[in-house]
Design goal:
Four copies of one chain form a homotetramer.
Chain A lengths: L3 E6 L3 H10 L5 E7 L5 H9 L4 E3 L2 H6 L5 E4 L6 H10 L3 E4 L7 H14 L3 E3 L7 H11 L6 E9 L6 H6 L3 H17 L3 E9 L4 H5 L5 E8 L4 E7 L7 E8 L2 E5 L7 E5 L2 E4 L6 H4 L1 H17 L7 H20 L3 E2 L10
Parallel strand pairs in A: 1-2, 1-4, 2-3, 4-5, 5-6, 7-10
Antiparallel strand pairs in A: 7-11, 8-9, 8-15, 9-10, 11-12, 13-14
Helix pairs in contact in A: 1-11, 4-5, 5-12, 6-8, 8-12
């Protein structure tokens, strides 16, 4: 099969991560990278990765007929517009989450994607984590029977910078959105009600910026599943990412991953490794597998593992969670058929 | 120290369990047992346990001046009245949970207990489980810093009988009440809001009786702690009893207990023991330790580990959870100082 | 069934442990305890346990026609003679391990037991540990197929006193003897060769007394099983007692037992409980179950779980291990049929 | 730093594995591959990997002045001669284990390597396994105090082919040799005595070829450490690779690695993943890390993590183990200073 020639838009942390992975894969090739803020370090990096073209002009990528797909790795507020431009240029699109901070913009972007008939994959990388894939497989194969309860523990090791907090869209849109997608993925249904409790317990910087750092969110699904997510911006012992699905025939738990299996026993106690430090370590395989899956979808003309509608649904839940937090009341979500289809 | 001479009121499953334990302890002695429905089996059992008196007349126990304390192990709807009678007779009281299904009756009973100056211990045995005590100790010693989130998984292995369901007061009052108490115990604060989601997913017998079998309850505490409890009436793999406390300095999880530590590895997979079957096995040590603690409180004139107010608070939460389930809305609980003190 | 009336000879740590357990069991009753060195503490203890007779004269116990069985809990060098006297007096016998430090004395004692037709149970309590029983059950039910390798880790938390070391008979006879019995029990065969390596790595007190504190022993069994035992007199993290059986259809491992299941996660690391401190905690249930089993054998006329031959075989292996350590060569053990039958 | 240009000699399973890894690493580049038996499949593979030259003539690689290092991945009986030829050609050498089946040949090869001053790394890849590296680190940092006992469990999932068995040099030279190296690595000392017990319990094919399939080997080290290794050619539950180091200040255990952390709880039991299937999966990271380490040693002029002497010492132990098995006696190994230095 022919390689999928791609352009990467945005060379921040996540853009460079994707390039590093893409260049090791036999099915893809990065032809060009665009980045608004070029510097020497980036140039050296691009050279070491064998990138032919490093530019500040995204249009060069969009107009290159050889490039079949683009990776949108820019700040969130540019996603929707870039999706529209890329779709109009006939490129398949891999876009980091969230699609946008505005449901209207997201729906507009999805509409254009639909019109142009290109593929759009949203970067909910955790769907490809081997542990959570195994949970999904157990659900789908019926090993757990009818699912009743989904429990997600999702805690970051430390808070982001204040600059990041300000432009993040808030904890639900920035952090919990991964968990909303995971809950939908595992429940196999759509959310009909959201109830969120949150607090600012860790650092006043969150409160100062109208945000929270601790939350418990209950999701009620159309098929009766109840999901519960607890989040913290600071788990001092490391990145805590556990998921459990309980059903009529059993339960399955995905525990944290650790650097080694070594257990140390001394007079001071019995100790094992902390979980992997953060998402780059914990989800390193998932970041690879999601782009392998994306390129296979392009090559085989299949659907992506996580599309525009998945992105939009997670955003709807995040928005409802924010409303619930503000009103103190559960928020109903109209059934999917009642909103404009994407 | 002198032995604490006790009478046991009610010789059902839990009453006989207490007698079995009491008779092995050096600090207590069961002088008499009363039970409304006597049969041959009970007589043989009482004999084997060396019980001097087995009677249908509870008054004999209450009037015996040698008996210092009574264990109330009768059906829930008799608890409050028996507490009042025992308190008036000057007996210390160990009463199984809940104190009653009516907050008014509970408060009346507590009022009389207060007037008579006797001790009342409510049978929230899980407080004495070695695993949960260790959690409590970690919280109290500050190892976890300020507590932020308490998570309780509490699932029974199989549903009770329809007769039991009918008189149980509903899942929140019968089953979750233990978890409400555990959440209060670990959070070290009082609940100010309850939000409950529930469903009838396991067996229509629950729905037929106006009850649920699956629930997720969120509790908000005055000190900012958020607790979340998930319950099921049927975990096919056994009695699932796990608790986790997450705080500013760390997290502590109490896992299930199992009959053995053996792990079996075959071509079919890697298998370990299911959790202990049900509460009699899982909490066997807690059932002993709670009565040891009760007798020590009597002998030393100390307060009990779990008193009448604890019983009432858990009932208030259960009642609010039921209201939340029915209305679909969070229910506020007035601060403790606003209700009549006990 | 009638209670088994017993006398206990020797009221040191292990004798008192047995009395404490026996007095809680419905099937046995301790009528008398003899102890060479009586003091006030012992008298108070006997009173608290409801022991009718505390004496320095063992003969009173042996001559009491009501006493059906004796527990021999005296120092090892008195075991063989007491077994002979008790057997001649027609008492069933529970004797702590080892039967003696001399194979000749052990065989003489077993001969008398055989002549008198009384039961003799040797206190290899670990056979009744729930974890190791489960291993045995898996072997017997064929879950592991043909057993190939047995691995035993057996490490004490700290060295005994020098006085104890002097009279212990050496590490193999005092400590490893339990592991030799466990290996025989799980292999289901007899040892044909012993190879022992040992060293004095922990404390010079062992070397001063001609003993070792660290050992690795390989046992070859008639049925092809190879067992390997590693011992240490000092595991600073607690009592390390693990056993593994590997066979043609799988493997089963019994891990250590711990006071609680709590795992603590902090910035300093992920910590769980150390193993139970020592044998009294780890094998508390086994100490109960072995005497229940002994009383049942008496009441039902069945064979004991661990008899005189088991005691003698373990002593033969211990003796061979010592010889191997001294000569640096493997030591062959003649097949069981070639030694005088017991 | 300049890339290390390498040639790979032998394109069997392990040769291709190395090429796959080398081509993904920025510090190395495979210029040529030689293989005696070329076929279409190999040509396609070489093309897909971007290998410029695929030849049957090893001499082309050895004479290429641009090639700085060779990987010897041919059958064992060619290793020594190829090492000599490569060393004479001035190439640094990475050679798969064992160096040879004859100690004389190995020593001759090491002599030439020493004369030519090239680097020789022997492929004991497990030294780079993250779990075992952590054990080594704990030993070196003194966390375990003085090491006393090393325990290695090393079991293959299924037996190799009869053809493989015939040319393998026997289980000790083919399989246990990895464990001998690991024991030396962790004990930090040299072996002075070897005692081996082995049996043919799994498949008669081993016995037919004068080999065994089950073994327990005890190694005594000059510094007092005792190591014990148990091996099986067939662990039906997967590749069982566990190592434990016990010392004066504690113990550290490296457990098996598994594809996921998921635990499944059903009415049938509590199940988790089997260990990784075999060495390609379990040691995938180690295979990468050992070549990264090799290229760094070349680039920085440092010593390799595992050199010719390490290869020779492991072979000496394997040979002694075979002799012990045949004679039934422990075999002494003269101290390292007494053999010709390498």
């Amino acid at each position: 099969m022919n390689k999928v020639i791609v352009g990467v838009i945005g060379a921040g942390r996540i853009g460079r991560l994707h390039v590093d992975n893409l260049q090791k894969l036999p099915s893809l090739e990065v032809k060009a990278v665009s980045e608004a803020y070029l510097n020497e370090e980036l140039k050296l990096w691009a050279e070491s990765q064998g990138i032919g073209l490093l530019t500040t002009d995204t249009e060069i990528i969009l107009q290159d007929p050889e490039i079949m797909a683009v990776f949108i790795c820019t700040p969130t507020d540019t996603h929707a517009e870039l999706i529209i431009r890329a779709a109009r240029a006939g490129k398949h699109i891999f876009c980091e989450k969230p699609v946008s901070l505005s449901l209207e913009k997201t729906m507009e972007a999805l509409r254009v994607v639909g019109e142009e008939g290109v593929l759009l994959q949203v970067g909910f990388n955790r769907r490809m984590d081997p542990n959570f894939r195994r949970l999904k497989q157990l659900v789908e194969e019926g090993e757990l029977g009818a699912p009743h309860v989904v429990k997600i523990t999702s805690r970051d090791p430390q808070p982001p910078s204040e600059a990041y907090i300000r432009s993040s869209g808030g904890m639900f849109m920035d952090m919990t959105i991964h968990d909303f997608d995971m809950a939908r993925y595992l429940a196999g249904s759509e959310v009909v009600e959201v109830y969120a409790r949150g607090a600012n317990l860790i650092d006043p910087v969150f409160g100062r910026n109208g945000d929270i750092d601790t939350a418990v969110v209950t999701l009620s699904f159309q098929n009766g599943v109840i999901a519960v997510i607890d989040n913290s911006r600071q788990a001092v012992y490391g990145y805590d990412q556990r998921v459990e699905v309980f059903g009529s025939l059993g339960s399955a738990c995905a525990d944290n991953c650790r650097p080694t299996t070594v257990e140390l026993s001394t007079a001071a106690g019995i100790t094992r490794d902390k979980p992997h430090h953060f998402f780059l370590e914990r989800y390193s395989q998932a970041y690879i597998d999601e782009v392998v899956s994306f390129s296979a979808a392009i090559q085989l003309g299949e659907t992506v593992i996580c599309g525009g509608n998945d992105g939009m649904q997670a955003e709807r839940i995040a928005k409802a969670a924010k409303e619930s937090l503000e009103t103190g009341l559960p928020v109903q979500l109209p059934l999917q058929t009642e909103v404009e289809a994407c």
